[in-house]
Sequence to fold (224 residues):
Amino acid sequence: MKKLSVLALSVFLFAASCKESKTDTATVATEQAVAENTGDTFTVNTDSSTVNWKAYHKGGLNPRFGFTKTTGTLSVENGNLTSGSLVSDINTLTTSPDAVDPTMNDGKTSADLDGHLKSADFFDVAKYPNVKFDITKVEDLAAGTESKVEGANKTISGNLTIKDKTVNVTFPAKVEVTGNTVNLTSKFTINRQDWGLAYGTEGDPKDWMISQEVDLELNIVAAK
Fold:
């Protein structure tokens, strides 16, 4: 019976560690030169655009998810996205009420999690109110490249800055330029430790319970 219990526990832990991926995995590099703004400038529609986020406990359990509002501009030349800059105001970070059940979390609500994420334990918005993404390169998606984004047609690289640390990330995206509108869609996973984003101080045992993976989904609409 004891051996069976151990085996059952092992199977459970293995299954929990195998979170089904619904996003692309971003590749990372050192900070790169930002692409020059050329062509026409399109301004991000903050009301129509979102950056959705999802974080997990170890093994993909108990996901927490929500969004932040985004501002910025995109540049288009000859019908192609060439550059751009996006800024997410972390003061607007909002956790979905569906992500936090107070009955399972000692009465704490999604609003409580918002406050915690904005505190010095995580983003420390008093010192670092914004997360910024500056495009460094846009290329056609290589033939045969698989992506979780239906209709992905581009590979975008950019400097992602969180709490004053900048890392270059590359991911597939779907970019549509139609008349006076640009739509950019992508969903990819980053490792928060690449930016030193941890719960409390480095090595804090509480941080171990949180997965290092964070899913981001960009839904950006910009217009002239």
Remarks:
- The chain has a mean pLDDT of 88.
- The first helix runs from residue 2 to 17.
- The helical segments are 2-17, 110-118.
- Residues 22-223 form a domain with the Lipocalin fold (CATH 2.40.128.110).
